[in-house]
Amino acid sequence: MATPLPRRGIPDATVARLPGYLSVLGTMSARGILSTSSEELATAAGVRSAKVRKDLSHLGTYGVRGVGYDVEHLAFQIATELGLARDWPVVIVGLGNLGRALASHSGLATRGFRVSGLYDRDPALIGHRIGDLAVAGMEALASRADSADVIGVIATPAGSAQEAADALVAVGISSILNFAAAAITVPDGVDVRQVDVATELQILAFHKQRRATATAWVGAAP
Amino acid sequence: MATPLPRRGIPDATVARLPGYLSVLGTMSARGILSTSSEELATAAGVRSAKVRKDLSHLGTYGVRGVGYDVEHLAFQIATELGLARDWPVVIVGLGNLGRALASHSGLATRGFRVSGLYDRDPALIGHRIGDLAVAGMEALASRADSADVIGVIATPAGSAQEAADALVAVGISSILNFAAAAITVPDGVDVRQVDVATELQILAFHKQRRATATAWVGAAP
DNA sequence: TAGATTGTTAATCGATTAACAATC
DNA sequence: TAGATTGTTAATCGATTAACAATC
Prior knowledge:
The structure is a homodimer of 222-residue chains.
Chain A: H1 12-30, E1 35-36, H2 38-45, H3 49-57, E2 63-64, E3 68-70, H4 71-82, E4 88-93, H5 97-103, H6 106-109, E5 113-119, E6 129-130, E7 133-134, H7 138-142, E8 151-154, H8 161-170, E9 175-178, E10 191-194, H9 197-219
Parallel strand pairs in A: 4-5, 4-8, 8-9, 9-10
Antiparallel strand pairs in A: 1-3, 2-3, 6-7
Helix pairs in contact in A: 1-2, 1-4, 2-3
Chain A binds a DNA duplex (24 and 24 nucleotides) through residues 11-14, 37-39, 48-51, 53-54, 56-57, 61, 63-69.
């Protein structure tokens, strides 16, 4: 990134788990649960309680010894830490099957995001309505004024991902979530996260094969 | 997991990067590039060359000092290591927008997977064709015979994710990719990977806010 | 007070990185 | 041989874990 950041001291591994804790707390809150413990949180989030306490200790001391954590208060603190005290506008580039699925994904609005623009370079798609929004052309993206705040999502085919990234960067968007099956190159200062179905499946396949091999060994005659 | 595995010695962090290398090698191969170096691979994959060499050294010694790596050979070795010497059948549970997008996702067939079953509990969806397949009911999932080989994908709403996971586990499926916005609980021996759009966006939001704060400090009077 | 549970410490483990000898 | 690039070493860094003093 361009600016050397004043180290905020929250480890990346912790940041990656905070959304999970937040989601669990949301479920608890919806069920009317007022208070919880690191042990309960850990079980629900699928980690160890020591990890939960260590993670939360990076944010501040929001628990009470011998008692636990106030669900609402902790949820608020985590949300604040994650930058979710406000809603973030999200734009989607590429409105094929995946882009359309993301555009109508209810899990975004409830978790701090608001889909605020849909862009595609295919003229055949322009004008199509998806939820509240109509698909616009790439030139409409270029004229957005609020881009410093926007998070961009790329849902194009692999071959168009770099073009989409370039367009997002050109408007000044500096946070990108890339669903295309291709790595993209961006300037310093732009934060990219990559999500790829095939990658996830290949990691599962590796473990699966390893287990199959292990079983074969166990089953084999000495 | 149930069986204590004979340690194969490939670190998790390395396994998670192998699909990326494989994808880059595939692109090179398609362009007719026969040979490459750790430096080129690293640039294309977005990592450092030392990391590439260290990662590849865990698989064996497939490079030649002073020369580099043979693209086809290295791709073959990585694919073999990942368990992609064969194709893996994938079943999708939940055929809403996301499930349909995944079912018709071309990036699967080209990278070692074959969508071989679509299941939903909604009678209104049963029978609908998506690509080559028709959506079947959950009872059809229960009668699959090949389940030990299958990788299950959950693309249901959050509220139905556990039910879907239970159904997959009940048939003997032991590798699950969960796209639902809810953690699922599975028995030992079942390998789960979770992908959640909102989680990824929240991690981006955290970094974005941190940068905004840093900029504000820089801009503030002393 | 007795019981419960946090926040922190310190030990361990795993991942990253730079440097370089090996070797094509 | 000279130049290039690997595979490995060793140092550093970051993450995890268990244990427990602090304290409600």
